[in-house]
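ok here's Germin-like protein:
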Amino acid sequence: MAVRLLISVLIISLFSFTYGSDPGPLQDFCVAVKDDEAKVFVNGKICKDPNMVSADDFFFPGLNMPGNTSNPLGSKVTPVNVNQLPGLNTLGISLVRIDYAPYGLNPPHTHPRATEVLVVVEGTLFVGFVTSNPADPNVKNKLFTKTLYPGDVFVFPEGLIHFQFNVGKTDAVVFAGLSSQNPGVITIGNAVFGSDPPINLDILTKAFQVDANVIKYLQAQFWWNID
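and the structure:
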């Protein structure tokens, strides 16, 4: 019995190291077909005919151009995932450029399918992430934070809530790699208070232990998406 258990643990461990959020490619490349041109729906995207593939399928221009931060949050995410760069299909990687105005914020959010590693190019950012719920209900979720400067790198583990805030008086720029061709984004405030249709008032008042008028006020706000 002990030997079987040990073998099972070893198999699970090996599987964990060799399988990520995205499946591995089974050929040199699988350039994505646009969703509106696909005849079937699959987990990911179907492949373009290899004979029709060109260098442009692996190319994306313009990340040298700053994003427009003229919005209530003062930040802009420019993604380069499989929707912008079809050659990323099945490769398990993508990236973003994020621009921040002074005191601009990339609000608390998660990437359900990717770890994110971020490098600061310009400016000063205060960043952090929060751990998942501890096994002990008497222990609070732990917050990890760091102030970053040009050249600094920080990693946000897959699925955990994280944020970036420009604490400087000048613009800030970062580039970040993500371990999925389509990492997804769930912005916490938008999802909870800006969903369509809205989450039932009784659920949110009980969950947050606040007066119903507070929830109504939050649901009435315009929840801005920066990507």
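+1. The first helix runs from residue 2 to 18.
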